[in-house]
Structure formats: structure tokens, C-alpha cells
Design a protein that fits this description.
eight-stranded mixed β-sheet, Tc1-like transposase DDE domain-containing protein, two-stranded antiparallel sheet, RNaseH_sf, Nucleotidyltransferase, domain 5, alpha+beta, nucleic acid binding, 3 domains, 10 strands
Length: about 525
């Protein structure tokens, strides 16, 4: 078996190798050189077919980059075999491969491939999908068009805010929903606010630590109790978190006394930050998030530093943010079928509000739902006879009556605040992601795996985040990411440039962000 394998890969057999090894050690060296070590001299396969090697290598690269893990050295051997007979225009008469599977396996290693565990690979699921890319381009254009209105950070080693150029700056607030610990970001000139949620677990600890000798503290194996936090991060020189002082709070409750009502949600004093002890408090569903946002909108009105400034809130596409009052999929086709709302309000072509009743107000069907067929006629839409429900939904989905906003957007409009949705799958465009990463790192590093200590560390991590001015670096990275997409770079290129191991400054998303890391990017 060994001799057969060695012959297949064009090597010496055992006896030949032993013979010439003995001559090399004990025989005449000149004889050894003149005989060329007894080897069979000649061109290798790829010396004769160099273009076939290039094709084989290109084939291997394509197969290795596919999502499926089905590629094998045998497939490469088959590819080479097929191309060999095509190049020479001859008919294959046996099953023997012109280049063995073993040789192809060696070829792959020589070309830099390696057979390894199929995990911990980068993923780009839908990031360059046409609709996502279109939304990303629109998102980038919106920020670049109004970039002078936002508060931005300079590129100095010790970052600081740039001088504001707009007479009515905008504050940006960022938000994202993650299990357990929720954060929101606010940044401005356009007063921008970001929001996010995430989970802290008392059992989580840092991955590595120093040990000395055999004396080590006990370790709790479980994940412990969890706490969810929903917070806001503000892009504004007054500070990264929104919290009123006592005087501002007094004015707020004078106008909105409902702020004092206990609705079962754990708010941080004078702020819209929410804590939830999982298993005890309600989970952060759409109703809780809407209550939190409404509280935020009311508090913003009395924040002295935000006066005369526009407010924008940056959120992700979590269902807690995108939930709508109704969807066309909830409607039935005929009279008396499903109908989620009593009426629909929408803006017509003249930008005027129109109201359409979804239930009959008089006549033989009074009190019954109209169904999409009747609604289409009242909207003046021509519907072919015998139309199916799915076809009818497609026709009506293009009408303004069914292009409705989310509950969050409708709520924000009441307070003259704009909601901006981040493109799907693009967490790098939400600065708050870096905030909760920093806070979790801090909590895990100092955790003793007790619940009470974890609660203390969450508050300490916020203070540490502010003291080290990490928010300035996150906002600066956010704008540099915007500029990178504006230059036409793809999602993968942006990650490598600002977040990946290939970046010279080693800035990685979920790792520590330092000044020196970002200054070279």
C-alpha cells in the first residue's frame, strides 16, 4: 500500500529510497551526483500544463469560498482530469485519474489551503442584498447631506467636539434591542439619540485571568440571574447619557404629572433608562419600549442643553421598533372578514390627512368589516374580476393607505422627533453597539458572580464609559464608517478597515476601543 501511494504521487518506493540513502551516507559522492541520485528525471505534470495549474487553483479558490462545505480534493482531481482530456482532445477509456487525489490534496496545501474546523468564520448574511444596499446608500446620503448639522468629533489624539456650524443643530440618539441590557445613544447638532438593549448575567466572567500556583477561587458554572437594561446614548457635548437635573425634573412633572405614575417599569431617576430583572419584571416588548420612548420624548423637552435643537433617534429593525398598527396581511378580502382597525389615516397626494372607515357605518352591512375588495373600490383602485386575495394585497400594498409607519414613528411625530432606521444587518452603523460592549467587558472583568455586585458594576460601567470618553471614539468611528460607505466600499471592506484583524490599528467590534487604535484608521 505504501509503495502504491508513493508511485501515485510520483515519489520513490521504499526500496529505492533506502538504496539511495545508503549510497549518500556510505558510497561515493561523485557517483551519487552523476547518477542524479537514481531518481527518474523529467518534467512534472504542471511543468507540461502550467495553464491547467492556474485553472485548477482558480477552481479551488471558488469552491473554498462557497458557503457549502462540500468541496473535496476528489472534486479537484475530477476537474483536472476533465480539463486534461479537453485540452488534449482525447477520449478517456479508463477510470484512472491523470492526477491522483493525494497529489491534489498536496496541491491544495501548496496553494495555501488548509482543512480546518468549519466554525468561527466571518458572516455576511444579506448585507449586500439589493434592498439592503439601497437602504444603506439612502441612509448614508441623509447623513452626508446634513453632516454640518450634527455634532462631530475631531481626529486628534485626545478627541474633542468640533465647533458647531449650524444655527439649529441636530442631536442624534441611537437605540438597539438586545436581550437583557438595553442602551440608547444620542448624538447631535441634529440632536441624535441612540437606543439599545442588552443582557447582563451575574455568572458571566472574563475569558482569561492571572493564576498563581494551585490556589484559585471557586467558580460558579451557571450563568446566574439576568438583568436587561434599556438606555440612550447621546451625541452631544453635554454628555453621552440623558438625565434631567432636579430643577428640570420639577418642570417636567408639572406639565406631565403622569411621569410620577408607577407603571411597573424600573426607571433610573430623572431619566428614561430602564432596568428589568428577568423572571420578575416584564420583558421589553413593544408596549414597554413605546412607554419608554414616550417618557424620553417628554424629558427631552425640558433638557436645557437640547433647547432649540432638532432631535433624531437612530434605531435598528427589531420588531419592538418596527411594529405597526396594522398590516395589509391582517385584512380579509370580503365583507365580514378579518379587519384589525376601525379606520385608516393616510396622507393623500396633496399631503392632506384622509380617514377611511374600515367598517360599514350604515346600510345592510352596518357594523361589519368592509374587506379589501370594498376598500379598493373606495380608494378608486381598479381591481380585475375574480382577483385572488394575495393578488389584491399586492395591488393595494402600493397605495399610501397601506404604506403606514410604525407605532414608534407615529409616536415620535407627536413630539416633532424623527426616527431613523439603520439598514438591516449593519450594527457597525449604530455607535451604541460599542457602548454595551465596553460596559459588558467592564462588568465581566470585575464580576465576583453575585447578583448584587453585578448591579453595582452596571452603574460603575456607565461612569467608566463617560470618564474614559469612549463615546467620542465611537461617534468618530461612526462617521468614518459613513464616509467609507460613501466611497463605495462594501460591508466586508468596511469591517476589515475599521473592525477586523486586517486593520493596522486592530479595531475590532466587541473589543476595547482606544485612541491609538482609531487614529491610524
Amino acid at each position: 500500500d505504501t509503495d502504491a501511494f508513493l508511485k501515485d504521487i510520483g515519489s520513490y518506493t521504499r526500496e529505492t529510497s533506502h538504496n539511495w540513502s545508503w549510497k549518500f551516507l556510505n558510497g561515493n559522492f561523485d557517483e551519487f551526483i552523476n547518477d542524479k541520485r537514481g531518481g527518474k528525471q523529467g518534467d512534472s505534470f504542471y511543468d507540461i500544463y502550467p495553464e491547467l495549474e492556474e485553472e485548477a487553483r482558480a477552481f479551488a479558490v471558488i469552491q473554498c469560498n462557497k458557503k457549502a462545505a462540500s468541496f473535496t480534493a476528489y472534486e479537484l482531481a475530477q476537474f483536472i482530469d476533465n480539463r486534461y482530456y479537453e485540452i488534449n482532445d482525447i477520449q478517456k477509456n479508463d477510470l484512472k485519474l491523470v492526477r491522483s487525489v493525494e497529489c491534489c490534496r498536496l496541491d491544495l496545501r501548496r496553494w495555501g489551503a488548509h482543512f480546518d474546523i468549519n466554525s468561527n468564520r466571518p458572516y455576511f448574511e444579506g448585507h449586500e442584498r439589493s434592498d439592503v444596499r439601497e437602504h444603506r446608500e439612502q441612509f448614508v446620503r441623509q447623513f452626508l447631506t446634513n453632516q454640518d448639522s450634527y455634532y462631530t468629533v475631531n481626529s486628534d489624539e485626545d478627541p474633542s467636539w468640533n465647533k458647531q456650524k449650524s444655527s439649529r443643530p441636530t442631536i442624534l440618539i441611537c437605540k438597539r434591542v438586545i436581550l437583557s441590557y438595553i442602551f440608547s445613544n444620542m448624538f447631535s447638532w441634529y440632536n441624535s439619540i441612540g437606543h439599545d438593549e442588552s443582557t447582563f448575567r451575574s455568572g458571566d466572567v472574563c475569558r482569561k485571568r492571572w493564576f498563581l500556583g494551585d490556589s484559585t477561587p471557586f467558580f460558579s458554572k451557571g450563568r446566574g440571574r439576568s438583568v436587561m437594561v434599556s438606555d440612550f446614548l447621546v451625541q452631544h457635548p453635554s454628555g453621552p447619557f440623558l438625565q434631567l437635573d432636579e430643577q428640570e425634573w420639577t418642570k417636567a412633572i408639572r406639565k406631565y404629572p403622569e411621569l410620577l405614575i408607577d407603571d411597573g417599569i424600573r426607571y433610573v431617576k430623572y431619566s428614561a433608562t430602564v432596568f428589568a430583572h428577568l423572571g420578575v419584571d416584564s420583558y421589553f416588548d413593544n408596549s414597554v419600549i413605546l412607554l419608554q420612548f414616550e417618557r424620553l420624548f417628554k424629558l427631552i423637552e425640558f433638557k436645557q442643553e437640547y433647547q432649540t435643537q432638532s432631535i433624531e433617534i437612530l434605531v435598528d429593525n427589531a420588531t419592538t421598533h418596527t411594529a405597526k398598527s396594522y398590516s395589509i396581511n391582517d385584512f380579509g378580502k370580503n365583507i365580514g372578514t378579518n379587519c384589525p382597525v376601525s379606520s385608516i389615516e393616510y396622507l393623500n397626494d396633496n399631503n392632506e390627512i384622509e380617514t377611511l372607515d374600515c367598517y360599514f357605518q350604515s346600510g345592510p352591512h352596518i357594523g361589519q368589516s368592509k374587506g379589501l375588495l370594498v376598500i379598493a373600490r373606495e380608494l378608486g383602485i381598479q381591481v380585475p374580476s375574480g382577483v385572488k386575495l394575495n393578488e389584491l394585497k399586492v395591488i393595494l400594498s402600493n397605495h399610501k393607505a397601506f404604506q403606514n409607519n410604525s407605532k414608534l414613528e407615529n409616536l415620535a411625530k407627536r413630539y416633532n422627533i424623527e426616527i431613523k432606521f439603520i439598514p438591516k444587518f449593519h450594527c457597525e452603523l449604530n455607535p451604541i453597539e460599542g457602548m454595551w460592549c465596553h460596559q459588558k467587558q467592564f462588568v465581566r472583568k470585575h464580576s465576583d458572580q453575585t447578583f448584587q455586585r453585578m448591579l453595582e458594576l452596571i452603574h460603575e460601567s456607565r461612569e467608566n464609559f463617560t470618564q474614559k470618553m469612549i463615546f467620542l471614539k465611537l461617534f468618530r468611528r461612526f462617521w468614518r464608517t459613513i464616509y467609507a460607505y460613501a466611497r463605495g466600499q462594501s460591508y466586508e471592506e468596511v469591517l476589515k478597515l475599521y473592525f477586523g484583524d486586517d486593520c493596522s490599528s486592530t479595531v475590532i467590534s466587541h473589543r476595547k476601543v482606544t485612541n491609538s487604535n482609531l487614529s491610524k484608521v
